Amino acid sequence: MTQQSNMSRVEFVALCAMMFATIAFSIDAMLPALPEIGAELSPDNLNRAQLILTSFVLGMGIGTFFTGPLSDAFGRKPVIIGGAFLYCISAAVGWASGSLELILVARLFQGIGAAGPRVVTLAIVRDLYSGRDMARLMSFVMLVFTVVPAVAPLLGSLFIALAGWRSIFIAFIVFSLFSIIWFGLRLPEPLPKENRRPFQLRVLLSAVGEMWAIPMVRISILVQSLCLGMLFTMLTSVQQVYGTTFGRADAFPVWFGVVAIVAGSASLLNAWLVMRLGMRFLVTTTLGVQVVLSTIMLIASLNFPTGSLLFACFVIWQTSVFFMVGMTLGNLNAMAMEPLGHMAGTAASVMGAIATVVGAALAVPVGLAFDGTPVPLAASLGFEAALGFGLMLWMKRIEARS
Fold first, then answer.
1. Predicted pLDDT of residue 194
2. Where in the sequence is the domain holding 83, given as residue range(s)?
3. Least buried of 43, 123, 232, 311, by fewest C-beta within 10 Å?
4. Is residue 91 part of a domain?
């Protein structure tokens, strides 16, 4: 940590996890509300309710492109606090909205605001740590962060039962205010003025060109895009699979929480293995395993009758997808950020923007194509995992030649 701060590493990990958790809470707490929102605001096309998730993710991707460069120019804290303010205002608009279209606009801007805590927190980690030590710390952050996705749908269901689905937007505001006050009081500004870069379009484009010229960075961004695409695709469709395919909508928050907790062990496992096996090996192996598991799920969906056996297969596969995220994203971020410490904020923004927007774009058509079975979901995830696996093998060949 910086000499200015008396924050321990444990508190720093907890704070970073809380900041990252803004994203997970904003997405996962909405999952139980999708059937009610669809029935109330889009009764003719219930699949459109999924756009509440992807509009947030799209906004997050747009905001991600700017928040890093802004934090490089003006410091980390002003950008995070400003983003939290926009997030809270947009949540208030979502609470008051009377149409699905207005909620989608509010969620878009809420995602833009959430990009501040998401991207700039990653830049702060890079400001203070590097290399495998950074990857290890990010694994611990992701481990703590796992608690929020595990309980968010259950909390969302509780809010709905007590005060209706609109109360979830109030919960977003409270969550954001708590984390930003903690951040503002406890962590000094980690980026000295002498290390800041002016916010200029020319400088930003130059940085993008510098990043894209590095093969490891370029491939890491593409694989991150595919991994986020798999995650977002699962998140947008999972509630409908539980409710429509298997008739287990009431039990969905509990199952989702159990799966998230089990999958959270991936971050702990990654923190232990990454120092021994390396980041590229773990990402490649994890994606290869996911190709096999997604193929098995697709075959099962096409051949097994809808019942307990197919449901068990889906839960195991869903766990593997979340497990994959814990074994890949932190490593991919660390691999891409390693040669970019001199422009950590800009690098985090560009990487996050591309990966998030592409991931959201991959999720939208699959979610809208939901046909009452897991087939579109399994087919798309298997294809994306195969692409990612191929890219990681390509990275290995490039490294071997250099």
1. 76
2. 9-401
3. 43
4. yes
The label of the residue with tokens 């997970």 reads: 24
Domain membership of residue 366 (yes or no) is yes
Q: Using an 8 Å Cβ cutoff, are 228 and 359 in contact?
A: yes
User: What's the rounded mean pLDDT across residues 121-131?
Assistant: 74
Amino acid at 359: G
- Pairwise CA distance, residues 138 & 271, whole Å: 8
Sequence-ordered list of residues with C-beta below 8 angstroms from that of 252, at least 6 positions apart, any chain: 31, 32, 153, 238, 239, 242, 243
Q: Give, in degrees to the nearest 5, the angle at Cα 164 between 158 and 168.
A: 65
Residue 32: CATH number of its domain: 1.20.1250.20
Distance CA 110, CA 59 (A): 7
Over range 163-183, report the average pLDDT: 92
- For the chain, the residue count is 402
What is the SS3 assignment for 53? Answer: helix
Q: Is residue 173 part of a domain?
A: yes
pLDDT at 3 over 50: no
pLDDT in tens, 216-255: 888 999 999 999 999 999 999 999 999 999 999 889 999 9
**Which residues, 6+ apart, have CB-to-CB distance to 41 below 8 Å?**
49, 99, 100, 103
- The pLDDT-based confidence of 1 (bands split at 50, 70, 90) is very low
Model confidence, pTM: 0.82
Q: What is the pLDDT of residues 370-396, one digit of tens each?
A: 888 999 999 999 999 999 999 999 988
Count CB neighbours of 327 within 10 A.
25
**Count of structural domains within the chain:** 1
Residue 352 tokens read as 């996050």
Cα distance from N-terminal residue to C-terminal residue, the chain: 34
Say if 135 falls within a structural domain. yes
Q: At what angle do helices 167-186 and 76-96 cross, to 10 degrees?
A: 170
Q: What angle do CA 247, 252, 253 make, to 5 degrees?
A: 160
**What is the rounded distance in angstroms from the CA atom of residue 270 to the CA atom of residue 143?**
10
